[in-house]
């Protein structure tokens, strides 16, 4: 009987000592939380806006380009802007810039049919996108560095020699008309 009680007492003392040790020495001393998040203080990041002059290049044709290199990943990203947009659409052909920006990527080229172009882009994990706003046409391309020559050929074909396949034109035209019809559904 005495041994059973002694074991319980010793076990209880050990648990109390362990709990006290854990609570007092393992718990970090923390600052009290501020009443409002604006009271939280952060260390300065010491970040400065990078200046573009170091990366600016004027090409032979007068185009201005900015080239920055980052060797952490073998990915090439190209983006550009062209002064063209929906404000310059001819009267009676409103929406042509939006249709064109979609068909530049999806309509094929003189060298590649639309389906072949889709297959090449998918196979090489490339990405080409085009978009039109009121005052500008934007484009971007991303691809692995090992496909640079092929991707630049494709980008040149898309921009300078688009085919605008009729079946793709009709598909995009139908999609755009449906989006206009349903713009106020919600």
Brief sketch in words of this structure:
It contains five helices and five strands, in the order H-E-E-E-H-H-E-E-H-H. By secondary structure, the chain is of the alpha+beta class.
Mind telling me the C-alpha Rg? 31 Å
What is the approximate shape? Answer: extended
Number of helices: 5
Order of helices and strands: HEEEHHEEHH
Cα separation of the termini? 79 Å
How many β-strand stretches? 5
Mean of residue pLDDT?
Answer: 84
**Percent of residues in beta strands:** 15-25%
Helix content: 40-55%
- What strand order characterises the main sheet? 3-5-4
Characterization of this structure:
It contains five helices and five strands; from the N terminus they run αβββααββαα. With 186 residues, the chain is of the alpha+beta class. Strand 1 (56-58) and strand 2 (64-66) form a beta hairpin. The radius of gyration is 31 Å and the shape is extended.
Notable characteristics:
5 strands; extended; single chain; alpha+beta; 186 residues
Topology record:
Layout: H1 2-26, E1 56-58, E2 64-66, E3 75-82, H2 96-106, H3 114-123, E4 127-132, E5 137-144, H4 148-160, H5 166-181
Antiparallel strand pairs: 1-2, 3-5, 4-5
Helix pairs in contact: 2-5
């Amino acid at each position: 009987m005495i041994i059973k009680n002694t074991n319980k007492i010793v076990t209880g003392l050990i648990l109390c000592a362990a709990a006290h040790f854990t609570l007092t020495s393992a718990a970090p001393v923390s600052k009290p939380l501020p009443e409002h998040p604006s009271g939280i203080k952060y260390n300065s990041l010491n970040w400065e806006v990078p200046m573009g002059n170091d990366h600016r290049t004027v090409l032979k044709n007068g185009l201005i380009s900015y080239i920055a290199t980052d060797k952490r990943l073998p990915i090439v990203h190209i983006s550009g802007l062209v002064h063209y947009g929906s404000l310059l659409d001819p009267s009676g052909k409103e929406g042509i810039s939006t249709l064109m920006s979609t068909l530049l990527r999806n309509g094929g080229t003189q060298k590649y049919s639309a389906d072949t172009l889709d297959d090449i882009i998918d196979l090489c994990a490339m990405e080409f996108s085009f978009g039109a706003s009121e005052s500008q046409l934007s484009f971007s391309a991303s691809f692995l560095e090992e496909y640079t020559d092929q991707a630049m050929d494709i980008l040149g074909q898309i921009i300078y020699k688009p085919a605008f396949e009729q079946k793709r034109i009709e598909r995009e035209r139908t999609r755009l008309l449906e989006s206009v019809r349903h713009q106020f559904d919600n």
